[in-house]
């Protein structure tokens, strides 16, 4: 083959010159590398046998095959600005001792930076990763900049260490973003960015005050550790915060509008066009100490709360919503049921849906929710009631008091007598919270009292009084004895207008615990006594229920 013809094998091309030597070094590539053995050996450290480079400039370079820099050491500035990696880029265990610049680079294949060490500033702004980007166990000794970067596939930063700022502002993750067990030592701001998949920071550690903000479908924060104040501002996301540990105030808030960037524009959310709503939903707080937790405008309808510590100190700001019970009545079943709307925990939904003969409308448990019952839910309702009371939200506290009493009534550890008392309290007035129920019972009791008085209680006629006495023969003081006939049991037509008016008067006086002064039979006397005992109690329960619903 003539030296004027290009080699037919993948060659090194080092030292190529368009005029003198258009093809450069004809040495064949070392497998897995883009240089021949002669060039690669020229940059190897004789002591370690690994490539060691000073300042390198690969600006706008194109790596057509595998770009192999595994275990390489870059002692000076490593410039890869606008470089194009058409194949796999391998930087496993590489060490960048000075500034690293990959701005506007394009990685068409997998990008592997696992266990790499960046001693200076690592610049990946506006970089496009068209395939998987791996930074697992990488160490960023200085600031790491991924601003406006685009990750077309999954990005992995698991066990990575960020000792400076972690700049992901305006970045776009079209797959999942994994930061499992990552260590953010001083990062003050992470985001805002957009993630079309799942952001996983489970097991991560945040060493300083930090603000995490992004728009995405899901945030996994299980067993994270926050060593300073933190704020998590989200859009569209469902958050799993189970077993997270924090000793300082931590806020999880929903951002109502798109995030505003430093230049004043809004963060583009085109990757989330199919998302149903920008509201933030909390999936779990199990195992969390909520003493320093603040939730703002968060949907708690599906949140698992059993096992949360110091839930009574939880602060709820803005529009924090809970699930509600089935809203419609069920008259075609036996026994028929009708629900008054109240705030209900997700775990109560799960428990009731699993009961025999459960009413339709209760949500069944999701996978991984575990099994909880009345014994576990009663203290949760009690703690939330106290939290609402401390926040001067009495109607909300009333809902959780109702839930607490329901769980106590259904618990297995209470005596039968106590269960019967709670059942009566529930049936008569909804634990002093359902005014309509107490008023209905009061109306029924008054109607029954009127009927019984008309039938048996009112005397047939008004008893007549008889005065008897003796007049002394020689005149003087006359002494009379006045006797009143005993009331006679009614006979004949007992349901007349006159008797109804007397019975109504007696009943109304009984409601306010007053004697009617009517002429009653013996049976009527006992009827009135019973009425004066029960009806004022029912009236008091109705007044109590109204007060509990409107008190602020």
Terminal CA distance: 95 Å
Q: Class by helix and strand content?
A: alpha/beta
> Averaging pLDDT over every residue, what do you get?
84
User: Low-confidence segments, ≥5 residues, pLDDT <50?
Assistant: none
For the largest beta-sheet, the strand count, sense and barrel status come to: 21 strands, parallel
Strand content: 15-25%
Radius of gyration (Å): 40 Å
Summed up, the helix count is 8
**What share of the residues lie within helices?**
10-25%
Question: What does this protein structure show overall?
Answer:
The chain has 8 helices and 41 strands. It has about 550 residues and is of the alpha/beta class. The chain has a 21-stranded parallel β-sheet that branches. A 10-stranded parallel β-sheet has the order 1-5-9-13-17-21-25-27-29-32, with no helix packed on it. A hairpin with an 8-residue loop joins strand 40 and strand 41. The protein is rod-shaped. The N and C termini lie far apart (about 95 Å). About 40% of the residues are buried. The model has no long low-confidence stretch (mean pLDDT about 85).
What is the gist of this entry?
This protein is of the alpha/beta class and 552 residues long.
Q: What are its keywords?
A:
22% strand; ten-stranded parallel β-sheet; single chain; 21-stranded parallel β-sheet; 552 residues; 41 strands; alpha/beta; rod-shaped
Helix and strand arrangement:
Elements: H1 37-42, E1 52-53, E2 56-57, E3 62-63, E4 67-68, E5 73-74, E6 78-79, E7 84-85, E8 89-90, E9 95-96, E10 100-101, E11 106-107, E12 111-112, E13 117-118, E14 122-123, E15 128-129, E16 133-134, E17 139-140, E18 144-145, E19 150-151, E20 155-156, E21 161-162, E22 166-167, E23 172-173, E24 177-178, E25 183-184, E26 189-200, E27 205-206, E28 210-220, E29 225-226, E30 230-235, E31 238-240, E32 245-246, E33 250-254, E34 280-284, E35 293-296, E36 298-299, E37 315-317, E38 323-324, E39 343-344, H2 346-353, H3 374-390, H4 394-410, H5 416-429, H6 435-457, E40 465-470, E41 479-484, H7 497-511, H8 522-550
